[in-house]
Design brief:
Layout (H helix, E strand, L loop, with lengths): L3 E2 L1 H11 L5 E5 L12 E2 L9 E2 L3 E4 L13 E9 L14 E4 L11 E4 L13 E4 L9 E2 L10 E3 L7 H9 L4 E5 L3 E6 L4 E2 L10 E2 L2 H12 L2 E4 L7 H17 L6 E5 L9 H6 L4 E6 L1 E2 L3 E8 L12 E9 L3 H19 L9 E6 L3 E2 L5 E9 L4 E4 L8 H6 L2 E5 L5 E2 L4 E6 L3
Parallel strand pairs: 1-18, 6-7, 13-16, 13-17, 14-15, 17-21, 19-24, 22-25
Antiparallel strand pairs: 2-12, 3-11, 4-10, 5-7, 5-8, 6-9, 18-20, 20-21, 22-28, 23-27, 24-25, 24-26, 26-28
Helix pairs in contact: 1-6, 3-6
The structure holds adenosine monophosphate and magnesium ion (MG).
C-alpha cells in the first residue's frame, strides 16, 4: 500500500493507463455501441431523387387548380409508378400517373394529389381518375437532397453509434464504418470461498457474482469481455490462470487490453491479487472513497509467458484490481473503469450523465472520503433517496438503484434538501 489517493487522482491514473484502441473497419451493423473514428460523408444525396410522399396521383398543379368535391376534374391515368420503378416516363399535360410513396416523380409533374382526394380510379376501372381537391405546386414532393447533400458530413468523427446513426450510414450507402475497436477485457475473480452457480453450497461458501457482473458491465460499456474461471486465494493458481490465457490470446494475435480482477487487494492475510501483482507492475493504493477503498492499477510486467515474451518488460496490458465486496467492485467499475474504457473507445462523453438533485432524507457519510450511495432518483420532483444502507455487501439494493448519490468528502452530515451530485445509471 503506497499511499492514499483521492477519487479524482485514481480516476486520472486509471484513465492514463488505457490508450485509445486502434481504428478498424467493421460492417455497419457490427458498429453498434462503438464510436466513429472518421467523418462519414454521404456518397449520395438523400433522398437520392425527387419522390412522392404519398400514395396518389402525380399531376401538374395547374391541371387541377379548379378541382373541388362538387366539380371534380377527370384526368386519364397513363402510367402506374410503384416504388422501385427505375425508368422515368414523362407526364404529359392533362394526364395523371398513379404513384406510390417513395416512387420517383415523373418529369413534368409538380405535385401529388393524395389518393384520399380522388376516386382512386374507381369510376373508370383505373383508366382515369376523378380529382376533387386542388393542390399547390410542390405538394407531397420529397426533394432530392432535402435531407442531406451528396458529399456532406452526415456523421462527424467522435459520434457514438446507436440505431439512428447506423440507419443513416446505411441510407447513404455505407457498407462499413471506421471505428475504434472494442477493448478486449479479461475478468478474473479471486476467492477460496467462491462456488459456481449450479453447484451445491457448503457452509462458508458463496456463489461467485463479481465476474458475471463485471463482464456484463464491460459489455454494457461497449467492450469485449471474457470472464476467466475464478481462482482460489493461491498466488500460483492465479498467475497460472492469467499467464495461460494471456499467452493464448497473444499467440492468436489479440492480447487483452485490460485485466480486471476482483478481490484479494485489501489488508487481510490472503490477498492473492496483491501478492501476485505487487511486483508485476501494479501499484496498490488506498482511495479516499466508500465503498471501494483498496484499489490497484498499473501495466503488467514480468509475466512468464512462453514464447510470447512479455518477459520482464511492459506487457502493454493494463490491470485494474478491484476490491471483492460486490458493491465495492461494481461501484469501483463505475467510478474508475467504465469512464477509462469509454474514453479509450473514443467516446466524447465517457462519464455517466450527472445531474443535481435534492436529498429527500438526511444522510451521514464518512469524513474525508467520497461516498457513493445507491439511490433512486425521482426526475419529476428533482429529489433523490437512498436504496438500502451503505454496506458494500448489499447487492440487492444496488440492483434496485437507478443512480449513485455522491456525497462529498467535506461534510459528514448532509441534511434533507441538500443538493447533491447524482450519476444516472442506465436502467
Ligand atoms: P476480498 O476483497 O477478497 O477480501 O472480498 C471481500 C468480500 O467480498 C468477501 O466477503 C468476499 O467473500 C466477497 N467476494 C469477493 N469476491 C467475490 C466474488 N467474485 N463474488 C461474490 N463475492 C465476492
Ligand atoms: Mg477474497
Amino acid at each position: 500500500m503506497r499511499g492514499v489517493r483521492t477519487v479524482d487522482e485514481h480516476r486520472a491514473a486509471v484513465a492514463a493507463l488505457l490508450e485509445p484502441t486502434p481504428v478498424v473497419e467493421l460492417p455497419v451493423a457490427a458498429a453498434i455501441g462503438l464510436v466513429l473514428a472518421e467523418d462519414l460523408r454521404a456518397a449520395i444525396p438523400l433522398p437520392p431523387f425527387d419522390n412522392s410522399a404519398m400514395d396518389g396521383y402525380a399531376v401538374r398543379a395547374e391541371d387541377v387548380a379548379d378541382a373541388s368535391p362538387e366539380r371534380p376534374i377527370r384526368l386519364p391515368v397513363t402510367e402506374d409508378i410503384p416504388a422501385g420503378r427505375t425508368d422515368s416516363p414523362p407526364l404529359l399535360p392533362g394526364t395523371a400517373h398513379r404513384i406510390m410513396t417513395g416512387a420517383p416523380i415523373p418529369p413534368g409533374a409538380d405535385a401529388v394529389v393524395q389518393v384520399e382526394h380522388t376516386d382512386g380510379g374507381a369510376e373508370s376501372g383505373g383508366a382515369a381518375v376523378l380529382i376533387n381537391a386542388a393542390v399547390a405546386a410542390g405538394t407531397h414532393l420529397r426533394r432530392a437532397g432535402e435531407d442531406t447533400d451528396a458529399g456532406a458530413v452526415v456523421l462527424p468523427a467522435g459520434t457514438p453509434l446507436g440505431a439512428a446513426q447506423l440507419g443513416l450510414a446505411a441510407a447513404v450507402g455505407a457498407a462499413t464504418l471506421r471505428v475504434h475497436r472494442p477493448p478486449n477485457v479479461l475478468v478474473l475473480s479471486t476467492g477460496s470461498e467462491l462456488v459456481e452457480a449450479g453447484q451445491p453450497l457448503r457452509h462458508g461458501q458463496i456463489y461467485e457474482s463479481n465476474g458475471v457482473m463485471l463482464a456484463a458491465a464491460v459489455t454494457e460499456a461497449g467492450g469485449h469481455a471474457e470472464q476467466l474461471r475464478f481462482v482460489p486465494d493461491d498466488v500460483s493458481q492465479f498467475l497460472a490462470t492469467l499467464t495461460e490465457r494471456i499467452a493464448k490470446a497473444t499467440a492468436e494475435g489479440s492480447p487483452p487490453d485490460l485485466l480486471i480482477t476482483s478481490g484479494g487487494v485489501s489488508a487481510g492475510a490472503y490477498e492473492v491479487v496483491k501478492d501476485a501483482l505487487a511486483d508485476r507492475g501494479v501499484e496498490f493504493v488506498r482511495v479516499a472513497m466508500q465503498p471501494g477503498g483498496p484499489q490497484g492499477a498499473g501495466r503488467l510486467t514480468g509475466l512468464e509467458i512462453d514464447g510470447a515474451g512479455t518477459g520482464a518488460g511492459d506487457s502493454g496490458i493494463t490491470a485494474v484490481t478491484l476490491p471483492g465486496n460486490p458493491v465495492s467492485s461494481q461501484v469501483s467499475f463505475e467510478v474508475f473503469v467504465r469512464p477509462a474504457l469509454r474514453a479509450a473507445m473514443g467516446h466524447p462523453r465517457p462519464d455517466r450523465p450527472v445531474v443535481r438533485a435534492r436529498l429527500s432524507e438526511t444522510l451521514r457519510s464518512p469524513a474525508g472520503r467520497r461516498q457513493f450511495r445507491r439511490g433512486e432518483l425521482d426526475t419529476a420532483s428533482g429529489t433523490v433517496r437512498t436504496v438500502g444502507g451503505p454496506g458494500s455487501h448489499l447487492l440487492s439494493s444496488l440492483a434496485r438503484a437507478n443512480c449513485l448519490i455522491v456525497l462529498g468528502e467535506a461534510a459528514e452530515e448532509h441534511p434533507e434538501g441538500e443538493e447533491v451530485e447524482v450519476w444516472i445509471l442506465d436502467r
